[in-house]
Amino acid sequence: EIGGSRQLMDLLDNLLTDFVKHGRMKLASEAYAPCYRVAK
Q1: Burial profile 7-28: b = 16 or more Cβ within 10 angstroms, e = fewer
Q2: CB under 8 Å to 31, separation ≥6 — which residues?
Q3: In this predicted structure, what is the pLDDT of residue 29?
Q4: Which 3-state string (H, E, C) describes the chain?
Q5: Neighbours of 38 (CB within 10 A)
Q6: Domain containing 19: what range?
Q7: What own/partner pairs with CB < 8 Å and gap ≥ 24 does 30-37 have?
Q8: CA 12, 16, 18, 21: dihedral to nearest 10 degrees?
Q9: What's residue 22's pLDDT?
Q10: What total of structural domains would you count in the chain?
Q11: Cα torsion for 22, 3, 1, 35, to the nearest 10°?
Q12: Going by C-beta distance under 8 Å and a sequence separation of 6 or more, which residues neighbour residue 36?
């Protein structure tokens, strides 16, 4: 679990989601399941 201020966690969640969407993370498969939870 990743925790912090609500504003920062929203930005981090959006950033990580966009990394996956745009292929910037090297993943073994197309079906991405995060190994973390953003605490908001």
Answers
A1: eeeeeebeebeeeeeeeeeeee
A2: none
A3: 63
A4: CEECCHHHHHHHHHHHHHHHHCCCCCCCCCCCCCCCCEEC
A5: 17
A6: 2-39
A7: 36/1, 36/2, 37/1, 37/2
A8: -160
A9: 86
A10: 1
A11: 10
A12: 1, 2
Please give the structure tokens belonging to residue 9.
């966690």
* Separation between Cα atoms, residue 21 and residue 16, nearest integer Å: 9
Contact 21, 27 (CB under 8 A): no
* Structure confidence by residue, pLDDT tens digits, 2-40: 888 989 988 988 998 888 888 887 776 667 777 878 776
What distance in Å separates the CA atoms of residue 32 and residue 22, rounded to the nearest whole number? 12
- The model's pTM is 0.63
